[in-house]
Amino acid sequence: MTSGTKIARLEAVPYRLPLHGELAWGAHSRLSAAEHVLVRVHLEDGTLGQAEAPPRPTIYGETVASIQGILAHLERQFVGLDIEDTAALEAVRGSVAHNLTARGALDMALWDARLQARGQSLFGVLLGPNTRVRASFILGIAAPGVMLAEARRVVESGVRVLKVKVGRDHRRDLEVIAALSAEFGDEVALYADSNETLTPDLAPAALDAMRDAGLMYVEEPLPVRLLRERQALRASGRLPIVADDSCFTPADLERELEFGTFDILNIKTARNGFTDSLAMLARAQACGKGVMIGSQASSGLGTLHAALLGTQAGVTEPCELSFVLKLRSDLLNAPIEFKDGYLDVAALAGHRIDEELLLAARV
Amino acid sequence: MTSGTKIARLEAVPYRLPLHGELAWGAHSRLSAAEHVLVRVHLEDGTLGQAEAPPRPTIYGETVASIQGILAHLERQFVGLDIEDTAALEAVRGSVAHNLTARGALDMALWDARLQARGQSLFGVLLGPNTRVRASFILGIAAPGVMLAEARRVVESGVRVLKVKVGRDHRRDLEVIAALSAEFGDEVALYADSNETLTPDLAPAALDAMRDAGLMYVEEPLPVRLLRERQALRASGRLPIVADDSCFTPADLERELEFGTFDILNIKTARNGFTDSLAMLARAQACGKGVMIGSQASSGLGTLHAALLGTQAGVTEPCELSFVLKLRSDLLNAPIEFKDGYLDVAALAGHRIDEELLLAARV
Predict the structure, then answer these.
(1) How far apart are CA B335 and CA B300, in angstroms?
(2) What confidence tens digit (pLDDT) does each residue in B154-172 have?
(3) Contact B65 A60 (CB under 8 A)
(4) Whole-prediction pTM value?
(5) Cβ B70–A60 below 8 Å, yes or no?
(6) Which domains are assigned to chain A?
(7) Closest of B327, B225, B45 to residue A258, by C-alpha
(8) What is the predicted ipTM?
(9) If contacts are CB pairs under 8 Å, which of residues 61-80 in chain B contact chain A?
């Protein structure tokens, strides 16, 4: 172990960034602003590591208050630890259950602080071989006209893959998908995110219809708790299946690999940080799985971090890196822009938190 | 649906009760005080429903701050709902992930408020046929002498079943168990809680040794993530297995029933409230499983609520109702006492929160 500088304190800075419109994915799941938390690791030499934690009560059970609370709980054990003592840091970070986005952000802020303290940078160390990453946009459930208008705006902004949130109204969803196909033709690729809303009875026909409609794949068609049914649906080979809700953690991934429930793994740095995301990527790659890097509706900083993972070897699919197109403002000193379907990640190396923008967005 | 009074507000009151000694169950898991949260549901007619939420960062990822945060998050949707509209209340309570003790306490406080508003009481409605419940005490990991001294104190206080926390030092654990057997003989029944610390290689011999040492059963010998290995260990029939960590939720229970991993279900009102606990009890009973009611190191109010579940038909095993013996003070107006191994639950009907004791314990 290299000897480094020690952790002085942790900090949680809540901020609020208004959205263009809303993001909805269920009766109790909608956002009209990104109300996230900047997780900061301060070292004794003044180094500041930072990352974004997006509280999602309906998905991960976190709130702004829970992120502040778990950081305060962990701070007692972190203060005084050497930033290079990754084994000790991981033991503390892993000492609490759940709190995935808080712990994911903590991991990324620790990486950021560690590399800066060494005179390195996240971009210098983590930028992988595929520096241009194909970007996808998540189209939330809304009235068909609203969805189409948002799709137009996003395609005009340079994105060429849309993940369409679908739900219990399967007929309406297929109409929206047909309208999107008619609008964009081959220029835009589409896939569906069912968010566990299908049933074992309905899923086979629904997946056939999605395949016939030209969708690339479908994310989480069945409830995660139906392990055997998910295994059987994937074995039926109708449409590639993307694992998201079923693979929140490395332990989840092992179970899903054992039961053979998916074709493509959606890895989210927002919930797994760099350490677990890289481990999950290596594991999925070794098992011959496709991989995409997903977003938890991240603002700019979270997008930079996800994009760095998106450049790694083994990432085979478009990555959810364009949520910033839904933000009316951001914390970064420069915008994140898309061209011809791609995000040029290498060009983002100079992007950083602008303290004045943060001051304006703090709550 | 009967029309009732509406919810006016939710309240979270943190309090602190010092312990006799410590409770430890791992490197990052130890308590020197019960720092819990009184969850309150206020109705428009002034009715007050109350229950105890014990934050356990290492088990459920909750902190005092997260319990306050999730109640504040849910309050917006609860206010104005009719206390008799259980479908609407359950939809809101189920709209967030995790937060098990906050949501469990919320459920029990809703029951308390609903029954009071009807002119009924929890004891009037929930007291089951087995009004005397055999009580067990959880003996935390400590130096053998400390464990033996605590066991003596607890047995003198009327408890006749000890759940002994065991860990990675299997030889030392067996020595402690032998010392307890030598001390108490047939007067005291013993079982073990491995808290997922064994491995598939070591577990068969460890369970054989536990059986030979006279233990009744063992709780969670293997890591929960090792589903197939747990299935195989139970199929080997060495010692009855108690499910705890593997059955945090009704959905978990369904998976465990499908894979046949356990003999006895440990249901904890602290994490499942009354609604889910009763459903899990019915489900386990229908599947021919034994059932115990467990404690999350509850103080008096949580113990009353767990004890009410302990009186139900279908509860076959001793219940973890004696953590109050480890508290130096409590919030209740009268002590909870044990005699000849039993807790007389019917005798607790007049126990209630003492507002002066609460004022003294508030933080």
Answers:
(1) 8
(2) 999 999 999 999 988 889 9
(3) no
(4) 0.95
(5) no
(6) 7-119 (3.30.390.10), 125-357 (3.20.20.120)
(7) B225
(8) 0.92
(9) 61-66, 68-70, 72-73, 77
